Amino acid sequence: MDYEQAFLFIIEVIGTVAFAISGIRMAAAKNFDWFGAYTVGLVTAIGGGTLRDILLDIPVFWMQTWWYLAVTAMSLIVVIVFRRILVHTRVLFIFDTIGLALFVVIGIQKTLDTDYPLWVAIIMGIITGAIGGVIRDILINSEPLLFKKDLYATACLAGGLVYGALICCHASVPVQGIACAATVIAMRVLAVQYGWSRCWAMSTAPTAPMKTSQQKINVNRTPHVETSQVQSMKLPISRSALQFIKYACVGVINTLVTFGVIILCKSILGLNPWISNALGYICGIVNSFIWNKRWVFKTSGHYAREAIAFLSGALICYGIQLLAVWLLFNEISLKEWEYSLYSFTLSGYGIATICGNIVYTVAYYIYNKLITFRQ
User: Mapping DSSP to helix (H, G, I), strand (E, B) and coil, where does residue 148 land?
Assistant: First the structure.
């Protein structure tokens, strides 16, 4: 499996988890039972891709393997365990936006792989990203975001156009995917930040018709009820829990920045692989430091002192990660373990590496909270 296939597989897994969590949590907010919430989460994750595959006349993707069902089940467990965190609207927005962005990438690339033209691929990218959310909103009896606000479909279109522009520039698949996903995420965030929720041609609301006295009485008897999404903004959330969610999001952004710079330097600029990797990790550590200082922990300490502590913590936690990988691979005997999915094979060393990354993430968060950005 080459690195382009591995890249697409990873973002498909992340996108499935993100969309499944958004669907499950929004169903739970409507008082669905566990099975109902699981169904909504599954439909959210596979709805757009199913319609895409039907239109392209190819085998429906989730019927080829069981792991989409398993990933949705794991997402249900995550929602149950972290329900106090995931009730917050901003957290749901993060998961919905990540799922939308990554599924647009998957939809475009899978369409191009079937030799359809670029304009069809962009449409299929929009369908893959947006239709699952539309079905979710219909099932929970909410007005679909696609037709309401946040530049939902417009963000998908912009991401698709960026993807197409990079194809014309002969960029690699990971560069195309990262740029497309970043465009979708940026447009959705900016739409919320600056209130780009209305069509510019309808910026002036029409005058509402006069209500009869009977209509006024009925309105008074049945007051307007806010949706669960708006209500959830008023619910309390643990500061540390929200901080860790932000920290995890920074980790995702940092991974995209690191690998994006590496691919840019190696594939487009033609630099030496060692130099490309060094520049990628330098950009990654600088990006991570700025995001953590300004957004996650929000400290006003001295930049130089915190930067030194941040870099020292990265080295310490990296050593802990290597130790964890060594223990899992050698002492727990994962050498002979192997799992295959399609053409992707996950070895025992791969499992140890994933566990080591989890250990690194948790250890580095604790280190930064208690030492680097201590308040």
Answer: coil
Closest by Cα among 60, 61, 25, 58 to 40:
25
Asked whether the beta carbons of 14 and 102 are under 8 A apart, the reply is yes
Q: Which long-range contacts (CB under 8 A, 24 or more apart) does 89-92 make?
A: 89/229, 89/230, 89/232, 89/233, 90/233, 90/242, 91/237, 91/242, 91/245, 92/22, 92/25, 92/26, 92/229, 92/232
Q: Please measure the distance between the N-terminal and C-terminal CA atoms of the chain and give it in whole angstroms.
A: 46
Identify the three-state secondary structure at position 267. Answer: helix
pLDDT tens-place string over residues 269-297: 777 777 877 788 888 888 888 888 888 88
Q: At what angle do helices 34-56 and 67-81 cross, to 10 degrees?
A: 140
Q: Model confidence over 213-251: pLDDT tens digits?
A: 444 444 444 343 344 443 433 334 457 777 888 888 888
Task: Confirm whether pTM is higher than 0.85.
Answer: no
